[in-house]
Description:
Blueprint: E1 3-8, E2 15-17, E3 22-26, E4 33-34, E5 45-50, E6 53-58, E7 65-67, E8 70-72, E9 74-77, E10 82-85, E11 88-93, H1 101-104, E12 108-116, E13 120-127, E14 132-139, H2 147-161, E15 171-177, E16 180-186, E17 191-192, H3 193-200, H4 205-224, E18 227-228, E19 237-239, E20 245-247, E21 254-255, H5 256-261, H6 277-280, H7 288-299
Parallel strand pairs: 3-4
Antiparallel strand pairs: 1-2, 1-11, 3-5, 5-6, 6-9, 7-8, 7-10, 10-11, 12-13, 13-14, 14-16, 15-16, 17-19, 18-21, 19-20
Amino acid sequence: MPKLVCQSGPNAGHEFVIAKDLVVLGRQSSCDVQIVDGMASRAHCHIRRDGKLWSLIDLGSRNGTLHNDKRINERQLTFGDRIRVGQVEYVFVKQAGDAELKDLLSKYEVGEKLGEGGMGIVFKASQRSMARTVALKILAPKYASRPKFVDQFIREARAAGALNHPNIIQVHDVGTENDIHYFSMEFVDGSTCMQLLRADGPFVVSEALEIARQVGRALDYAHQHRLIHQDIKPDNIMIGPGNLVKLADLGISKTFDEAESETDGKKVMGTPHYMAPEAGLGKKIDHRVDIYSLGATLYH
Length: 300
């Protein structure tokens, strides 16, 4: 079983073996790991076993839980990660017999984490059989035993895999090993539009228009293949070498037929700031919601 090694605070140097599937950290003496710091809530966060992996979850604490210096709600843990509450910091340490993601996927050599969303975590990896660098997306461990989320995850891979266009990230492979659901896709050596906006501010008009033009080409192709993306936004647009634009994340995409057959009018999918009014109101949608979202993205 892994352990927490306290790096700072009154208990610096102490080690806490995680001997059960759910370990609570907090200020209360009844917690599995007591945090001696005034910034800690009575029950501050917990570490949960998800299959063969582990997750860190904040329990609505007043002052937050930091994972590698970033405040989080929930994150998958990797050995060597740092957990900080107030001035108290722990390191999540591997022990003999513990497995990590790179031990569980035989077809890929898993490298650094590239990003994390609501359902999945993306790593840079090497596909051993092809000796090529890929982006490897795995289903968040907390969803791995829930068929609804597994089906949606596989559906995303197949939807993207059915498309072959220079402005759409290509999916290579989808599979499951050791209860880890994953798919691999082309690795884009670049940044998302949102990352560039945060680093450099707004694009000049000519750059913004060129990005919109390339995304428009990708959407035209997807719509010809009767697929609605449903989540166009700066986070899902990547700029690669040579300023080639790549559209990513078909996690909530649906076919024209699926959109037409929906009758409950209650499903709201997408990101509010970029969402067409009819989508936000839970009404029937068609491919035009993507055009609206592209316009909102261009404005941003």
